[in-house]
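Dear colleagues,

As part of the handover before I leave the project, I'm documenting each prediction I ran so the next person doesn't have to rerun anything. This entry is a single chain, and its sequence is reproduced below.
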Amino acid sequence: MKYITSIILCIVFSLSLLVSGCGEGNTKAEPSKNAAAVETAKDAPKTSAKTTEKKSAEMPSSAELLAKIPPYSGSPYVTINNNKPYFKESEYKTEAFENYSPLDKLGRPGAAYACVGVEIMPTEKRGKIGNIKPPGWHTVRYDDLIKDKYLYNRCHLIAFMLAGENDNVKNLITGTRYFNTEAMLPFEEKAQKYVKKTKHHILYRVTPIYDGDNLVASGVLMEAASVEDKNLEFCVYCYNVQPGVGIDYKTGESWRE
């Protein structure tokens, strides 16, 4: 009897060892839920905030823009990019600001960019700016060709009526009277009227377009978009020309045509 009992005990002990070994093998082969979750996170395709942002067209360089713009033919401006500004969706914010590019090696202003709201509009009259002489400036008159006689104006990139900048050299370029009053002014007034009426904000950028090392800009790219409702948008190129007058944009010299 003792012999049979010993045999039974040996069989039970052997079976227990076998079961224990199988359990250990299963533990190693099957990943835990936490490990599986980590692997899933690693293998999942990465997403970026940029992929959810609506892509806008890339703003062309000055050379690219000049290559596409038709020669001046009587209209003071021409629409660009189907009249859609080149702002990115992430730029549409309601915090007012102003940003003026540093002058380049020739002393020329670059792009002027702002989020215009009533909070940065001027509360006093504009001061004198006659002491500023932007690159390419010449004091020259054509009394019989120009109603206001003088060929050139000191043209604000971001109009004084929008941001209250007066004699900021980073915001003033040499522009013709025609360019100032017939091309830029209507869009400046449109933007001003919108902000005053709605109390909303406008993304507003004006970029001087220079041909190479010319001191006088060939024109400017004007962009605007209302932030809160997008009811106002424009993207136009304004020609820096004066009918009846020829201009050497390299130096600012001029002559009758």
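Residues 1-53 have pLDDT under 50 and may be disordered. The first strand starts at residue 77 and ends at 79.

All the best with the project,
I.
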